[in-house]
Amino acid sequence: MRRFAxxxxxxxxxxxxxxxxxxxxxxxxxxxxxxxxITPLQQHQTVAAQAWGLTDDEWAKFEHLQSGPRHYWSPQxxxxxxxxxxxxxxQERQRYAxxxxxxxxxxAERELAYQQAYTAAWARLLPGLQPVQGMSSVENTSTSTxxxxxxxxxxxxCQARALxxxxxxxxxxxxxxxxxxxDDVIRHWARQAGIAAAQVSSGQITLNHDRGRWxxxxxxxxxxxxxxxxxGQWQRVD
Length: 238
What we know:
- The chain is of the alpha/beta class.
- It has two domains: 5-103, no CATH class; 145-236, Glutaredoxin (3-Layer(aba) Sandwich).
- The chain has helices at residues 5-8, 13-31, 40-51, 56-66, 69-73, 79-85, 90-125, 137-144, 156-167, 183-193, 197-201, 213-216, and strands at 146-152, 171-177, 205-209, 225-230, 233-236.
- The chain has a five-stranded mixed sheet with strand order 3-2-1-4-5.
- A hairpin with a 2-residue loop joins strand 4 and strand 5.
- Helix 2 crosses helix 3 and helix 9 crosses helix 10 (183-193).
- It is globular.
- Residues 1-16, 28-33 and 132-143 have low confidence and may be disordered.
- Residues 89-116 form a coiled coil.
- Residues 1-18 form the signal peptide.
């Protein structure tokens, strides 16, 4: 299926967050009487929590997590993934996973409907002219550059970061540190991270045993760590 540059912008998690919160703010402002005792910041926090299906306490926990190490490990990670990764019980983890599935299903439905409308409009207004790919700087960044992502087992942040990059369309060579050359270990890790077989078969993602590369870079934990090759030299990106 042809991917249009215009729609790639919609796939960024930070854009999803902004769109979700903006829509909820408009709905609340139109339907809820203003309480003069509530500050604008408190109102924004309540609206943001409702937009993601969270309670005020859960939103406060998300903000607390993002003020600590999680902010540096996984910047711009969405609230549901953040809370799910840091969940303290299977019940919590399942709740956030189900909320995220429902929210992303709605997003996909809207984006598909717009994609169809866009395709129809292009065919109607510019018949015979093929849409130009690669016009968006976001698309150029995600498709022309390939990154190496070093991860390890028992690392929820590694799984979350990999999934976040995959959703953005980033091309990744994933290296599992400490896999000891066992294919079943890396396959299990990929399933846990939510990486689909189609993403591997298409070449967007490759799954690799580290085989000492991580230590060869002279790097140190914490993981995950993303690298980019520049002028023949590997440079850490985040």
